[in-house]
Structure formats: structure tokens, C-alpha cells
């Protein structure tokens, strides 16, 4: 057996910022070398950030990426780090003649191995995902090579993200080649309870390939996607060796005892990948001699986060990175005293600090006394910046010129509030946070150009029942400070905001249940219809009330045009209202229970 110390750089790149990402690569390689790492693995498309979407169709961008990876190799050597091999993702181009159906320029979701000032080998993702938030058939062509490099006597193979999730392909070829270690750069977005799925998958693939497996995953927010890290190392038997914390950058270092390479395949053997394709296994040697025995570092396994904690961390990270990466200094939102705006304000305070959070209380003639007092109590508990702008006179001015009744009059109040927030945003440069939850978005229970106006929507993928769970959980963490909790000395959300019956307060005595079923009933139905794509008959068969099924489906389907105009927000479920779920607005299909 041979020893190898591997470092997984669980880092937070910025899409399109090749210079900063290269600087981070050098910095983290230096950290890894300082800890005696023999190999450093960065994440999928690290140099370009991920996902770059249609940037990859620009020749200038692809050329800049290719130049960046060559420059990164030279810079590592110039800064005395050239002896430490580095695996890093970027965008490359395949040497293919243009053809119909192929992405323009034949881009590759590529990985390079950098050593001694140059790129010693390149490979590309073989399995291209085309589901959920992924559109990789639109952007990339398939890779058909598997590099296997010998490092200190160990044969190391490289696969990329989706190559682990699909049968056959690079994992199968790594097994046939007798690799001792498979390293896998990833950009795998967060979804609830995905960490257990990842571990089981990595363990299964390690057993299939008969080698240890190192899974390096990106961390950070990118528009509506949140990457949670959760990098890990498993042995050839599937046993967990090391695991990084979630939702934070970390250099995960692990010492492995690995079999010495046998050279089972030739230098350029074509191998049946078990998925209907052939992959060329390419061998190269960096160092053939095993290391002298050394004392291994103790492995670290990060503690498990419970379900509500991980959701809250994802929301905080999504807000923090959207603010930072888009150059905002502060955020602003309307604070009503209700649970949705209270939770949104708290997430923002945890993300960027309460001194950078601005709230506006905008009472109308229908605002209750307790709503005003609950909003003020949150301000006092958190120390956010607050101002009060009564909207009664503004609404009266509109009503003098327009004859509005019923729903139109109610919506006018929401639109005046939206106008105030957007105007203050323009004046002071704040990012406007909308406060709507997924239950409201699903059923259209919001006002277009009113409470839906804004730049980012922290809880748009959070059902109402989960909003309450998150609020109670957050209050229970009072006094705790870490990388996603501010450390408020008292519970940051007023208890009355959590316990009182929800209301938009746009007319006297209004309650959400005037327009919607009880949220625990509604959310179960929405989960089946939106997340699981169940039709009417299936919903009724699952035990939902037939009349309620028909009513809720109609509400959801008719609100599609509103959702298209809603701001982005962090994705926490397998099917958010955004990249995951793409339904036509103009659509006459209607579900039938028969």
C-alpha cells in the first residue's frame, strides 16, 4: 500500500471572474501545500464559476477560460507551488467540426491537471445532465477520455460530477483500469436532505470501481442556486473517511492508504464504458515511487445538520452571496409585523448583519395595532435600520383620481408599498427583498408590481408551514453565533408574529383563510402537485379533497404569468418556481379528475 494526502478545496468561486478565481486557486493551493498535501482538487468549472449558462456560447469567454487555465499553471510554478499537482475545472473546447445539433464552438465542461507550470492532461464531463436546473446538452459536447495519472505510486483517475450519478462511463472505466483513487470535482446544488443521497452514491460508486473516492463540491450562492459543499472522501469499501462542513468554505484534508498502481490498461486503450460508448483511458506518470511512510493527520467528519437547520443555512448563504456578488451594500424590505416579512428580515440580518438591513413600516387604514407593535418589536430585538412611511394619504390621492373597488382597491395598497420600496432602493442603492413564500406564489396570492416587486426573494421556495418551522427554529438558536447565525442575545422574531393568524390586512378583518385553505392542508396538496407533478386523479387518489384539488389546481395554473415576473430566490426543493419548473403561460390544458 502507498500513502497519499489529498486536499479538497471546497470553495466559493464567482461566475465570470476568472482573475479572482485564479487568485483563489493559488491561495488555497498554498494552504494545501502548507499542510503537506500531495494532491489538491478544486471543483467543477472552478475557474469560470458554475453555472455560466449562455456565456459558454461566446467564443471570447471560452478562449479566456482556456487561457486562464494555462496561466494558472504557470502562476502556481512561479509562486513555488508547481510541485503540488492540482485538479481544477474550467471550460475548454473540443476539436470537432461544426454540425447540426452541436453547441456552438463545441464547448467542454473540462478539468485540467496542473503540474510544474503546465497543463499535463485535460478531460471533460462524459455524462451531460439535462434535467431540473441542468441544460448541459445545450452548452457542452460529451467528453470521451479518462486520464489516469500515477502519483507517488498510486493510479488516480478523474471523473466530473454527473459522471458519478449515471451508470457506466468514467466510473466503470476507472474500475477496469485498476485505479486506486477516483477524484470527482462537482458543482452539485443544494436540495433538502441531499447530503444522505450523496454519501450513499459516493459509497456505491467507490465499491463499483474498487477504489477510494474523493468528492469535492462547490459552496456558495449563484442566483437561485445554492451550493452546500458537503465534500467527502470514502474508502474503496464505501466507508466514510472524511467530510467537510456544509455552507462554508473549507479545505478538507485526508490521508489515504491506497494500492500501488498496476498499469492494468495500456497508455491509450479504448474501453467499453458500459453505457453504449467507448472511452479512451490515457495513462501518464507524475511520480512512480511511493512516499516514505509518514504520520497521517486525524480525519475530520463534520457534524450532521438537521433538516430545518440546513434549509435556514441555505437561505442565509443564498442571500449573502447574491448581495455580495452583485455589489450591493445593503437591503431593504417592507416589515408588516407578519411572519413572512419577519423571517425575511431575520435571514437578511444573519446574512449581512442587521446594520445593513433597512426595513420600512407602511401602515394603512387597515393595519392593526398589533402589526405595528410586532414590527417595532422586531426592530428593537435585531437593531435593523427602520423608518415608518404611512401610506394612507398616498392611497387617498390615487383613489381621488381612480374609482377602484374590491380587489383592485386592495391591490392598490400593495402597489403603493412596492413603489415606496423601489423608490428608496433607487435613492439609496438598497437591494429590495420580496417577502412572499412558495404557498403564496403557487396560488397567486400576491400583487403584481406590489408585494412581488423587488430584486431577490429569500423565501420564494419555502412553503408557509415551513416558514413557521424556520421561525421557531431560529428563535431557539438565540445566543448562538456561527457562520450563518448572527448571535442575537434574544429570540429575533416576536412570538406574536409566529402565533397570530396570517393576514394581508388589505381590508377590515381580512384573513388568509378567506381566500386559501388552511396552510397545512394547502401545502400538502401543493407538494404533491408542484413537486411531484401529480395530476388531478392521482391527487384525489392520494386522499386530497376533490373540490379542493380542482380549486387549487386552477389557482396554481392561472398564476403562472405572475411567477414569471417574480424575482429569483434560493432554491431549496427539488422543484422550485424557476429553472426547475417551466410551464407555458399561454396554456389551455386543464387537469381533470376523471
Automatic annotation (TrEMBL):
Pathway: Cofactor biosynthesis; NAD(+) biosynthesis; NAD(+) from deamido-NAD(+) (L-Gln route): step 1/1. Keywords: ATP-binding, Ligase, NAD, Nucleotide-binding. Residues 4-258 form the CN hydrolase domain. Its EC number is 6.3.5.1. PROSITE patterns: CN_HYDROLASE (PS50263), NITRIL_CHT_1 (PS00920). It catalyses: deamido-NAD(+) + L-glutamine + ATP + H2O = L-glutamate + AMP + diphosphate + NAD(+) + H(+). The active site is at residues 44, 125, 161. The keyword Translocase does not apply. Belongs to the NAD synthetase family. In the C-terminal section; belongs to the NAD synthetase family. Catalyzes the ATP-dependent amidation of deamido-NAD to form NAD. Uses L-glutamine as a nitrogen source. PANTHER family: GLUTAMINE-DEPENDENT NAD(+) SYNTHETASE, NH 3 /GLUTAMINE-DEPENDENT NAD + SYNTHETASE. This is Glutamine-dependent NAD(+) synthetase. It comes from Planomonospora corallina. The lineage of its organism: Bacteria, Bacillati, Actinomycetota, Actinomycetes, Streptosporangiales.
